[in-house]
Amino acid sequence: MKKSIFKASFEESQGLVTQGKFVLTAGITRNNNPVHMGIFNRLFTLVIIGYFAFGLVLYGLLFAMPEQIGRVGEVRLISVKAAELIHQIGTFLIPPSAFFYTLTFIFMTLFCLPKKNLKVQSYFYFSFYFPFLTCAVIALFYFLSAFAFNRFGFSGFLLQLVAGLGFIIAILYQGYRDARRRLYNEPRWLGGL
Q1: Is 128 exposed, middle or buried (0-12, 13-18, 19+ CB in 10 A)?
Q2: Residue 190 lies in a domain
Q3: Rounded distance between C-alpha atoms, residue 31 and residue 28, angstroms
Q4: Rounded to 5°, angle at Cα 12 from 6 and 15
Q5: Count of CB atoms within 10 A of residue 46's CB?
Q6: How many folded domains does the chain comprise?
Q7: Does residue 12 fall inside a structural domain?
Q8: Domain that includes residue 131, residue range
Q9: pLDDT in tens, the chain (193 residues)
């Protein structure tokens, strides 16, 4: 009978958090731990790096670029059809982009508030990474779709999209199997999926 990764005992689950170089600290040492940063360092990090650098770059890539790229006479480096595709995808993805962009700024603002312990702090940081990386993936999707469309046409673009989603699912499944193997001390299987 195969065991689920969610039915492991406490002793079995300790194997996940006590292996490797990030033992129960989430990779944060005292020198780069924001719990030990002063309020001015936190505000500097939040305002200068967070709002201005990441905020402006993400806004430009998520909202301004897809809207402006489809203008007639402005397309020089890619084909007009690829620019239209970026514009259409950008228009379609405005609601999720706005949602994750707003979530990024909410969690970025929560970064400035002091946390009591490392566990609570880790929850805040990992919750910040998800919307930020989602915004980055959406912005990267615009460029990759245009490159695939320019090179292989619409059918090649769809084929690459399906293959990419298949690879993502395979990677997630492999991570699930690796976690289950480490939980229950199963031998490592060297075959494919």
Answers
A1: buried
A2: no
A3: 8
A4: 110
A5: 17
A6: 1
A7: yes
A8: 5-184
A9: 567 767 777 777 666 665 554 444 545 555 555 556 677 777 777 777 778 888 888 888 888 888 887 666 667 777 888 888 888 888 888 999 999 889 888 888 877 776 676 667 767 777 778 888 888 888 888 888 888 888 888 888 888 889 988 998 999 999 888 888 888 777 776 655 5
